[in-house]
Amino acid sequence: METTLTPTVTPAKGLAIAALVCGIVGTVTGLIPFLFVIAGACGVVALVLGLIALRTQRKAGLKRRGTARAGFILGVAAVALSIAGYVIVNNALTDLQHDLDDIITTTTTNG
Predict the structure, then answer these.
(1) Confidence label for 60 from pLDDT (cuts 50, 70 and 90)
(2) In the chain, where are the structural domains located?
(3) What 3-state class would DSSP assign to 19?
C-alpha cells in the first residue's frame, strides 16, 4: 500500500514570503541614503504584497499570519528609510550647490 503525502499549502503563503523578502531588501538598502529609490520601491511592493497576503489569509480563517505581518512592517520601515534617505541626499546636494556657488563667486570677484 502506497502512501502519498501532500503538502499543506496555506493561501497567500508565497505572497507573504515575497513581501518579507522585499521588506528585508528595502530595509537594508534604506540604510544607505543614496539607494533610497530602491528602498522605496521594495517598500511599496512589500506593503502591497503584505496587505494582499493578510487579507487573503484572514478570509481563509488562518490565525498564523506572522510572515505577512513582518513583510508589511518591514515595508513600512523601508518606505520610512527611503523618505529619510531622500531628505539626506536632497540636503547634501543643496549644500553642495551652495558651496559651489560660493566658490564660483569668490573666484570671479578675486580673479
Answers:
(1) confident
(2) 13-110
(3) helix
CA angle in degrees (0–180, nearest 5) for 80-43-83? 30
The residue ranking higher by pLDDT, 50 or 107, is: 50
* Amino acid residing at 58: R
Q: Name the one residue in this structure whose C-alpha cell is 547634501.
A: 92
Give the Cα separation of 22 and 78 in Å (integer): 9
Give the integer Cα–Cα distance in Å for 90 and 71. Answer: 28
Interacting residues of 45 by C-beta distance below 8 A, sequence separation 6+:
18, 19, 22, 26, 75
One-character DSSP codes across 46-105 = HHHHHHHHHHHHHHTT-S--HHHHHHHHHHHHHHHHHHHHHHHHHHHHHHHHHHHHHHHH
Separation in Å, CA 6 to CA 3, 9, 15, 63: 10, 9, 21, 21
Q: Would you state the pLDDT for residue 1?
A: 65
